[in-house]
Amino acid sequence: MKIIFATHNQNKVTELSQLIPKKYNILSLNDIGCVKEIEETGSTLEENAKIKADYVRYKYGLDCFSDDSGLEVDALKGAPGVFSARYAGNQKNNDANIKKIWKKLRGQSNPKATFRSIFHVHFNNKTFSFQGKVDGNLIFEKRGLNGFGYDPIFIPNGYNQTFAELGDVVKNKISHRALATVQFLKLLERG
Ligand code: ITT
Questions:
Q1: DSSP states of 72-116 as a string?
Q2: Cα separation of 150 and 115, whole Å?
Q3: Which residue of 50, 67, 97, 170 is most buried, as measured by CB atoms within 10 A?
Q4: Ligand 1 nearest-atom number relative to CA 147
Q5: C-alpha 149 – ligand 1 centre gap (Å)
Q6: Domains of the chain by range and CATH?
Q7: Distance CA 56, CA 35 (A)
Q8: What would the mean pLDDT of 115-121 be, rounded to a whole number?
Q9: How many CB atoms lie within 10 A of CB 107?
């Protein structure tokens, strides 16, 4: 069964493909020939997730799902949040985004942060929304080579290593995206 994932982020596609049984074939926007960058004009993860999934549903008439996700830093009142991908500018540069977080956190003592993911789903003429989140702490050096985005500076609660050090197997058990995927999968399985 083909499942359209309304994303251009190949890292997200890779994670989902590891989380969902092989009988589901995950296709990205590029795979369906949609090269357009869908403008994310919402002010919340929920709004942007809906914008991305609705675009595919109404332009292509296909069932699909989207993920809008971000890092919410306590000491920055939830920033970068919905702006996580473009925190340091439209070029979506992970290094620049991390440096900006460090700069903003200078002089702050609270390292707490949360990764949150919202899935918006069109399935059998109904819509669904699922949330996953994981709490942790930020560090002021980059550690590890796995994952993407803010993974090298995020240590999930209960662990001593960053997501980038822990790697796919652990991340896929506890991450915001993994927790949203569990709920999405239940929907797919009940049909
Ligand atoms: P699409 O909109 O095409 O799905 P995107 O990367 O722009 O791709 P978002 O708008 O949802 O996706 O932005 C999510 C950003 O939040 C992402 O680019 C990372 O900077 C950060 N992020 C989300 N999940 C993450 C994760 O699991 N690990 C590290 N950083 C993550």
A1: EEGGGTT-BGGGSTTTT-TT--HHHHHHHHHHHHTT----EEEEE
A2: 9
A3: 67
A4: 28
A5: 7
A6: 2-190 (3.90.950.10)
A7: 12
A8: 98
A9: 6
Q: What is the pLDDT of residues 163-176, one digit of tens each?
A: 999 999 999 999 99
Residue 191 has pLDDT above 90, yes or no: no
- Exposed, middle or buried: residue 19 (CB in 10 Å: 0-12, 13-18, 19+)? buried
Angle separating helix axes 163-174 and 10-19, nearest 10 degrees? 50
For strand 25-27 and strand 64-73, is the pairing parallel, antiparallel, or unpaired? unpaired
Give the mutation target among 19, 43, 84, 99 for probing the ligand 1 site: most ligand atoms within 8 A of CB: 84
Pocket flag, ligand 1, residue 151 (CB < 6 Å): yes
Q: What value does the mean pLDDT of the chain take?
A: 97
Residue 51 tokens read as 């914008």
- Active-site annotation holds for 135: no
Q: What is the structure's pLDDT at 60?
A: 94
- At residue 99 the predicted structure's pLDDT band, cuts being 50, 70 and 90, is very high
- Quote the tokens at residue 118: 């919202």
3-state secondary structure of 35: coil
80 within ligand 1 shell (Cβ under 6 A): no
| pLDDT single digits (tens) 119-131 | 999 999 999 999 9
